[in-house]
Write a structure and sequence with these properties.
CATH topology: Rossmann fold
Number of helices: 2
Strand order of the largest sheet: 3-2-1-4
CATH superfamily: NAD(P)-binding Rossmann-like Domain
Helix content: 25-40%
Order of helices and strands: EHEEHE
Number of domains: 1
Shape: globular
CATH class: Alpha Beta
Largest sheet: 4 strands, parallel
Radius of gyration: 14 Å
Oligomer: single chain
Strand content: 15-25%
Amino acid sequence: MTKELWHQGRVAIVTGGTAGIGLEIARTLVARGAKVAIGGRRNVEEYDSLSHEGFLIGQLNVCDSDSVRGFVDRVTAHYGKPDILVNSAGVSVHHEVCDHSD
């Protein structure tokens, strides 16, 4: 199996997938046949211009465990179990990483 076909039919989640590097990764995954869900912190309505590209789009705050669980549940209900995770969300942490519980 070539690397171009490996993504065929796989379910991918791309955090920070609504702009920049994350969006380009998501577009590449769709072009290679993956089912892709992208998440961003803003309201979903702000991403209407991306809906025609074949993404499942949802609001996602990777710093909020309830938001992450809800997003993964939505992706699983829509596409099935995720196979690929691309963490491209930009996060500003003001604490020691070891101090975070999640």
